[in-house]
Amino acid sequence: MKAAMVVGAVMFAAVVCGCKAKDKGEADRSAPKTATGDKMSAGTMAGSSAAAPVPEQAASGDDMAKRYVECWGFWNQKDWKNLASCYSNDITSEQVDTGMPTATSPQAIMPYHEMIAAAFPDRKGDLEVTLINGHNGATVALFTGTNTGPMRTPTGEVPATGKKVGMQVAHAVHFTDDGKTANKEWFYQDMGELMGQLGVSKAPHRAMVDKPFQDNEIVIAKDDANEKRTLENANKGIEACNKHDSKAMSDLFADGLVWSETGMPKDANGAQTAKDDEAMWKAFPDLALATDTIWAAGDYVLQQGTMTGTNQGDWKEMGIKKTGNPISLHFLQLYKFDKDGKMTHSWGFWNSALFARQLGISQAPPTPGKKSGAV
């Protein structure tokens, strides 16, 4: 994950169904261990007239992928009743780094979905990637919609702007044993990008996108040699980043690498990525990535974690003067590798608005009910 040139935006709770010091009261981002209960066997029932219970068939990766896509469909259709069935009763649901409290029941989650649907009545999520590894799942989707309703934020209500938005979002889940419900979910969105597209923030941001970059690609992990190699190479890249070794990172890049960050206005190629990293490390000499979860599925590797550091120098390329302030941001990073084990694409999801606030370079959120100024 790389930091950005975005200098602030307003946070509000946007929900689409959809390393490491934890904040107080924050849910654990690592996937829980799969519970295994002892099944009663036919031998246990010897001498009894009762029939032995038939063990429930374990959910397959295909089953969970289908369920994942189905639940996104419920969200798109505003079918709140069936969407609630996608969550276990002990769900923990995080809208990561938005300031919203963790929801701990399906009933507590539904108002969030209804709220974003009220602000964007035509909103939808077009899936681009769906990954399954064991009981872990993740999706990348293009969120689009028109802001024709007021938005509720932690500081109050912001009037509708009438503008269209189109931005990539990421979602990760952990499925229960039966593969029908999720007992953990994490949703990642860049509020700086969203507010920029709405015209609320004047800071640089990614342009609106109205079409997915590809049809939904469903990948189920096989735990094969290719996945072991991609996971190993991803870990090498993370280690190189923590050592601030741009050459070691660049050695993992394919010639046509595309590096995308939600907090960066434009994609970067390999050479530009290396240059950006070196400038970032000068501005944040102690910058480090800590991993909560990392796993592979086919050519993809998913990482969830925390980026920390202290702004101890100017970041001229980004127009940032030394602030001396620390940052701590949660992120989801998705990497894709080619047949030679080289990285062809990286997508980073995190909240640039929080980054700007932590540095102290953003203005206060707009007064509810009044037109928002630049932030």
What is the string of SSEs from the N terminus onward?
A: HHEHEEEEEEHEHHEHEEEEH
What class, by secondary structure content?
alpha+beta
Largest sheet: 6 strands, mixed
Number of strands: 13
The low-confidence parts are 3-28, 30-50, 364-375
In short:
The protein is built from 8 helices and 13 strands. The protein has about 375 residues and is α+β, with helices and mostly antiparallel strands.
Give a quick set of tags describing it.
375 residues, alpha+beta, six-stranded mixed beta sheet, globular, disordered C terminus
Walkthrough of the structure:
With 375 residues, this protein is of the alpha+beta class. It is 23% helix and 29% strand. It is built from eight helices and 13 strands. The strands form three sheets. A six-stranded mixed sheet has the order 1-7-6-3-2-8, with helices on both faces. The chain starts with 60 loop residues before the first helix and ends in a 16-residue tail after the last helix.
Lay out the secondary structure.
Elements lengths: L60 H16 L3 H5 L2 E9 L10 H14 L4 E10 L2 E11 L4 E3 L2 E3 L5 E12 L6 E7 L2 H7 L19 E4 L4 H18 L3 H5 L2 E9 L8 H14 L4 E10 L2 E11 L15 E12 L5 E7 L2 H8 L16
Parallel strand pairs: 1-7, 2-8, 9-13
Antiparallel strand pairs: 2-3, 3-6, 4-5, 6-7, 10-11, 11-12, 12-13
